[in-house]
Design goal:
The chain is mainly β and about 130 residues long. The chain has one domain: Jelly Rolls. Helices cover about 5% and strands about 45% of the residues. The protein has 1 helix and 10 strands, in the order E-E-E-H-E-E-E-E-E-E-E. The strands form 3 sheets. A 5-stranded antiparallel sheet has the order 1-8-5-10-4, with no helix packed on it. Strands 7-6-9 form a 3-stranded antiparallel sheet, with no helix packed on it. Strands 2-3 form a two-stranded antiparallel sheet. It starts with a strand and ends in a 13-residue tail after the last strand.
Length: about 130
């Protein structure tokens, strides 16, 4: 499982020295891996205490950035604690889920890049 934390990244100064940037994925780092894909979605979501994201998979490179709360991310059966500032990479066609821990909800920003030739995905239910 690939989890990167903003707290362990040193900022780089960009845009003529006007903006500190904390790269969790460096420019073009995923170019070859996502070649021919397309931006599938960008969203925010929240998982309520006592609930969990239904285990599912789809043909996308998916990223969850934890904004608030704590939880356990499960990717391909591997479990890892996640907290604010963590970026989780989920490879295409890999079963994944997320559940909050610590009594509160977990709130994440998510974006996904579909693999080349991916069919439309129904996110309302997963078989």
């Amino acid at each position: 499982m690939d989890v990167r934390s903003i707290v362990s990244v040193e900022p780089e100064v960009e845009h003529n020295g006007t903006v500190p940037v904390w790269y969790l994925v460096k420019p073009r780092e995923m170019h070859d891996l996502t070649d021919g894909g397309s931006l599938e979605l960008v969203n925010e979501f929240e998982v309520a205490p006592g609930s969990a994201v239904y285990p599912h998979e789809h043909p996308t490179h998916e990223f969850y950035f934890v904004m608030s709360g704590r939880g356990v991310m499960i990717v391909a059966g591997e479990e890892r604690d996640v907290s604010p500032g963590d970026l989780v990479y989920i490879p295409p066609d890999t079963v994944h889920s997320l559940r909050p821990t610590g009594g509160g909800a977990i709130h994440c920003f998510c974006f996904a890049v579909a693999v080349k030739g991916a069919p439309p995905i129904d996110y309302s239910s997963h078989e």
